[in-house]
């Protein structure tokens, strides 16, 4: 007697094989048989031709804080995600000393757009070290499977305290970091993550700690991961970080390196293709370097009460450091400060997510009824009409509306032919949903469903089988997750049942259900008929299924193959 049989499904094996119709049986959380006439089961579902694929492995999330109060990692499982990789970009909450918790939460507020009230009320700090963090979330239970990087910024803060944001580490500090990374790898860390990206600014406008690390620190840590004989390195590269240097880290560690974020930007339309070509050349030399790419246009909702897209500019630091709202408003009005910002946006945009693309920045929601006619119009157009510089118009409108104006913009990745070219490279890793972060700005946790709907069904840029492979089997192979990612007997029963003719994501909705009443954006899945984690159903066509805490089916993944 099987626990579950799904009959009459279109099987997508996660390996890119030709889809075929069959039934699949599950027992004790494992796939035990695929074929016909599989016998009796405690539960039988007639898929009636719906597609059945492995559950999506989301390789770029930031659930590190949220998982401590929301073990289900909403909204990922209803979007077909059965495994989440946390701790990306170096922005983890473990290890962390009690005296550094406030600083750590402040950094996350700035760099990942997390509401401080949600972090202060929600995070459970029943840990200090990285192994204690893994044990804590394992003991509380998790909905999806969870894999966790040890993050560079948390590591530096643990060793160096506030100095982590101001200077390079000395030899003793580097040696301490190496010991902590080795300890984390022994405990089951997926690997090590970091960032050199200019956009990554922490509390008080300082660079995130990883940006202060020098070459010898990076090499020492890469070698430590390599000594474990397993694991992955993940890096968000800044404008001054060369692929050649990253290749050296791959050589030092002899481990795969995921390089983020490979998005197409109209201000530098060839840059992403140059980087991806350099990664391909490195692979041809035997280095396992892969670009993390997105199938979503990078879009954000924001106001000047929380101006994340601009905070990475050096000149904006004066606004961040302003003491109180009145002082902040005074900075926004200052002509000299405005001139400095205009100059930097034009002459030194670097890899920042906003680079002066005023015609794709629109007024999403006016802060006053008198300005409703401005909604859905671009700042560039409105500024030309008003005879103003767009930055002045942008600030003046927000100030007129007491900073309540909601702006919406697509920064990058909205050129369909360019993104098609990126996605069709079979070695590029599709991810960058950022689930768990920037919750008041965006919600891209459903990127996998968007890939299956937009890029497979509507644009026919990828086949259904290839899209399934890129979301599952390819991810599992890169991380050394050997028991998941494909539909084969003996593999874990992480499953997604969906309708290819309707799969996708719905419109954004704003909720106020985070700890402390903080807000977030959420999208609903479309065309999903079932999501199973280790054989337990977490979602159906009506959305998430309520589960008792004792019944949480996920596992904290600690074993990764070489």
Written overview of the protein:
The chain has 562 residues and is α/β, with parallel strands linked by helices. Among the domains are: 56-297 and 413-445, Metal-dependent hydrolases (TIM Barrel), CATH 3.20.20; 300-409, no CATH class. Helix content is 31%, strand content 21%. The protein is built from 17 helices and 24 strands. The strands form five sheets. Strands 1, 2, 3, 4, 5, 17, 22, 23 and 24 form a nine-stranded mixed β-sheet that branches. Strands 6-7-8-9-10-11-12-16 form an eight-stranded parallel β-sheet, with helices on both faces. It has a three-stranded antiparallel β-sheet with strand order 13-15-14, with no helix packed on it. Helix 4 crosses helix 5 (171-187), helix 5 packs parallel to helix 6 (215-227) and helix 15 (447-458) packs antiparallel against helix 16. The longest helix has 17 residues, at 171-187.
Superfamily (CATH H level) name of the domain at 56-297 and 413-445: Metal-dependent hydrolases
**Quantity of strands, as a count:** 24
- What is CATH's topology name of the domain at 56-297 and 413-445? TIM Barrel
CATH class of the domain at 56-297 and 413-445: Alpha Beta
CATH architecture of the domain at 56-297 and 413-445: Alpha-Beta Barrel
Indicate the structural class: alpha/beta
Largest sheet: 9 strands, mixed
Strand content: 15-25%
């Amino acid at each position: 007697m099987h626990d579950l049989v799904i009959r009459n499904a279109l099987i997508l094996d996660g390996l890119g094989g030709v889809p075929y119709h069959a039934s699949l049986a599950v027992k004790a959380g494992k796939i035990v048989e695929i074929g016909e006439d599989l016998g009796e089961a405690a539960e039988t579902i007639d898929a009636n031709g719906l597609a059945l694929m492995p559950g999506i492995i989301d390789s770029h999330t930031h659930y590190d804080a949220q998982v401590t109060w929301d073990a289900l990692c909403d909204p990922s499982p209803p979007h077909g995600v059965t495994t989440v990789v946390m701790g990306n970009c170096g922005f983890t909450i473990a290890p962390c000393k009690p005296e550094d918790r406030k600083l750590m939460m402040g950094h996350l507020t700035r760099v990942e757009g997390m509401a401080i009230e949600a972090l202060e009320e929600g995070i459970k700090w029943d840990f200090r070290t990285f192994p204690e963090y893994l044990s804590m979330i394992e003991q509380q239970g998790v909905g999806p499977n969870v894999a966790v990087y040890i993050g560079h910024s948390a590591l530096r803060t643990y060793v160096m305290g506030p100095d982590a944001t101001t200077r390079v580490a000395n030899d003793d500090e580097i040696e301490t970091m190496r010991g902590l990374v080795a300890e984390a790898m022994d405990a089951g860390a997926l690997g090590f993550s970091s960032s050199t990206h200019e956009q990554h600014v922490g509390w008080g406008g300082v660079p995130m700690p990883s940006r202060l690390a020098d070459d010898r620190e990076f090499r020492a840590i890469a070698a430590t991961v390599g000594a474990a004989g397993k694991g992955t390195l993940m890096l968000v590269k800044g404008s001054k970080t060369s692929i050649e240097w990253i290749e050296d880290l791959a050589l030092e560690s002899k481990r795969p390196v995921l390089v983020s974020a490979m998005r197409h930007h109209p201000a530098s339309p060839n840059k992403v293709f140059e980087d991806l070509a350099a990664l391909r050349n490195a692979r041809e030399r035997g280095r396992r370097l892969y670009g993390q790419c997105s199938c979503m246009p990078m879009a954000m909702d924001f106001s000047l009460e929380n101006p994340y897209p601009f905070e990475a500019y050096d000149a904006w630091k004066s606004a961040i450091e302003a003491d109180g709202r009145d002082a902040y408003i005074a900075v926004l009005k200052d002509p000299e400060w405005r001139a400095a910002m205009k100059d930097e946006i034009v002459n030194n945009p670097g890899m920042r997510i906003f680079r002066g693309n005023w015609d794709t920045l629109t007024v999403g929601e006016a802060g006053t009824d008198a300005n409703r006619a401005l909604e859905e119009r671009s700042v560039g157009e409105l500024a030309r009409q008003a005879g103003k510089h767009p930055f002045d118009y942008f600030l003046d409108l927000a100030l007129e509306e007491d900073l309540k104006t909601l702006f919406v913009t697509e920064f990058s990745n909205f050129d369909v032919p360019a993104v098609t070219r990126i996605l069709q490279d079979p070695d590029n890793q599709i991810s960058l949903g950022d689930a768990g972060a920037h919750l008041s700005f965006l919600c891209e946790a459903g990127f996998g469903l968007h890939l299956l709907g937009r890029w497979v069904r509507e644009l026919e840029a990828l086949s259904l089988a290839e899209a399934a492979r890129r979301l599952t089997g390819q991810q599992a192979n890169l991380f050394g997750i050997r028991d998941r990612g494909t539909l084969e007997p003996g593999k874990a029963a992480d499953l997604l049942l969906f309708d290819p003719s309707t799969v996708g994501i719905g419109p954004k909705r704003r909720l106020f259900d985070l700890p402390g009443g903080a807000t977030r954006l959420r999208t609903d899945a479309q065309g999903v008929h079932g999501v199973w984690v280790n054989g337990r159903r977490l979602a159906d066509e009506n959305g998430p299924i309520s589960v008792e805490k004792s019944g949480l089916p996920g596992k904290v993944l600690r074993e990764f193959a070489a």
